[in-house]
Amino acid sequence: MIIDLDAHQGNGHEKDFGSDGRVYTLDMYNSGIYPFDHVAKKYIDQKVELDSGTETEDYLENLVKALKVAESRFQPQLIVYNAGTDILDGDPLGRLKVSPEGVAIRDEKVFRFAKDQNIPLLMLTSGGYMKSSARVIADSIINLSKKNLIDIGTRCIEVE
């Protein structure tokens, strides 16, 4: 399963896996921005098209509904999660209005979705055209660790 939550409609992976029934694509994106790839769009198994200016609460409500639908339609063995930060309020290209806290909650919901079904998840950070994106990603990772959804652990190396 590909869960694509950056602000742009995916088109590369959708075309690559569009005819492969072993891959299910959930793509939630701003329908008013690039790439407007109508060929790729027909390969999305589950699309959630958002309007420019969608705010945190509406974004998260749409995500919760989408994950419930995905769970009822497909039983993946692996989730590849595109965790873009171009959904942040103020991002010049994404044009959505999700707060930094909303990004952390979004990631938590996706990780909990995977954990509840015992599905391994690969998180790819992407998008995000503001300097604040790095801090938002770091805070989200810390939140995931605090909620026991990931183990970032620590390594000690003894030097003699």
From TrEMBL:
Gene3D superfamilies: Histone deacetylase domain (3.40.800.20). GO terms for molecular function: histone deacetylase activity. GO terms for biological process: epigenetic regulation of gene expression. One of its GO terms (cellular component) is histone deacetylase complex. Residues 1-142 form the Histone deacetylase domain. This is Histone deacetylase domain-containing protein. It comes from Panicum virgatum (Blackwell switchgrass).
